[in-house]
């Protein structure tokens, strides 16, 4: 069974006799950001044509939604966003609740399989998970060695998370394949990294939950949007008409702003963890876990329409 501890001054996967005083927590936070993007081979300093095509596809799909389909064209963007994040978001969740539940279940199952197979010891499943997640874990290892200020880490998290979320949503129009691939990749990677981190349950929770509550919620929403667009694409292709895809776009329109907002909040929190001595104080760890659970309850109230009246009964 793997028993590994991540460190900023050791090669990924090597054992340490004691925890470093100031570990690079980025090594266990934010799993598989890089692998949310397909065909990730970049030349130094420039993007490939494939990457440009991804962006054009993603931005086009999201722009159509945010610029006003099924919205009052005369209303300012600020009012649209307030309405979307207010009463419209819980309604959108209700329309897509079954799909959101399925996406959440798949992510948790993937994470659970990775954790359980690693705890059992050497076995074909654990080796398959290890091989499958190696590219994302290698990326995490490389980025953890980069010297950044807390502000620099915040920018790094925001950039990678937002780009990944936009691609997951926009590229879902390609029959949802990329969105489902990202779902499995991130679930397996999260489970594998947690099971091999070497930290206690309290330490792991205090490092992951503060931003994970927001990031995973935003990620689940983004993935659900991508899969919904994929289902719409399949139906449109089968029926030889665009109406199913348009209907899918209308269904997820008010999930997108919420997803983006949650991912931004997660990036800001994750960056702030670089200036908090999390592992040096059990009191800080308990406080972070408590605050995270409180945040989760607030998110549930918001998602269920309990914070803002939606007019629905």
From TrEMBL:
Which superkingdom is the protein from? Archaea
Q: What is the lineage of its organism?
A: Archaea, Methanobacteriati, Methanobacteriota, candidate division MSBL1
Protein name from the UniProt record: Stage II sporulation protein M
This chain's source organism reads candidate division MSBL1 archaeon SCGC-AAA259D18
Q: Which UniProt keywords apply?
A: Membrane, Transmembrane, Transmembrane helix
Q: Which residues cross the membrane?
A: 97-116, 162-184, 255-276, 282-303
């Amino acid at each position: 069974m793997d028993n590994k501890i991540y460190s900023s001054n050791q090669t990924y996967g090597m054992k340490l006799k004691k925890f470093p005083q100031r570990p690079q927590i980025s090594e266990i936070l934010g799993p598989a950001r890089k692998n949310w993007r397909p065909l990730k081979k970049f030349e130094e300093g420039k993007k490939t044509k494939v990457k440009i095509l991804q962006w054009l596809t993603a931005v086009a799909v999201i722009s159509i939604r945010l610029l006003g389909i099924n919205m009052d064209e005369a209303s300012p963007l600020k009012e649209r966003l307030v309405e979307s994040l207010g009463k419209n978001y819980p309604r959108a969740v209700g329309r897509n609740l079954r799909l959101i539940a399925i996406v959440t279940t798949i992510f948790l199952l993937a994470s659970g399989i990775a954790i359980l197979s690693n705890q059992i010891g050497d076995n074909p499943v654990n080796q398959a998970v290890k091989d499958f997640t190696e590219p994302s874990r290698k990326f995490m290892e490389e980025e953890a060695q980069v010297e950044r200020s807390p502000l620099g880490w915040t920018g790094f998290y925001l950039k990678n998370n937002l780009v990944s979320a936009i691609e997951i949503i926009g590229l879902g129009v390609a029959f949802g394949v990329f969105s489902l691939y990202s779902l499995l990749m991130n679930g397996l990677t999260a489970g594998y990294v947690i099971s091999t981190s070497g930290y206690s349950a309290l330490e792991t929770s205090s490092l992951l939950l503060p931003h994970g509550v927001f990031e995973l919620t935003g990620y689940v929403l983004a993935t659900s949007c991508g899969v919904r667009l994929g289902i719409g694409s399949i139906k449109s292709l089968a029926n030889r008409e665009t109406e199913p895809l348009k209907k899918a776009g209308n269904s997820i329109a008010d999930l997108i702003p919420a997803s983006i907002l949650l991912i931004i909040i997660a990036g800001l929190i994750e960056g702030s963890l670089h200036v908090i001595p999390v592992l040096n104080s059990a009191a800080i760890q308990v406080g972070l876990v408590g605050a995270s659970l409180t945040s989760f309850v607030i998110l549930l109230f918001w998602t269920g329409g309990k914070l803002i009246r939606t007019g629905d009964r």
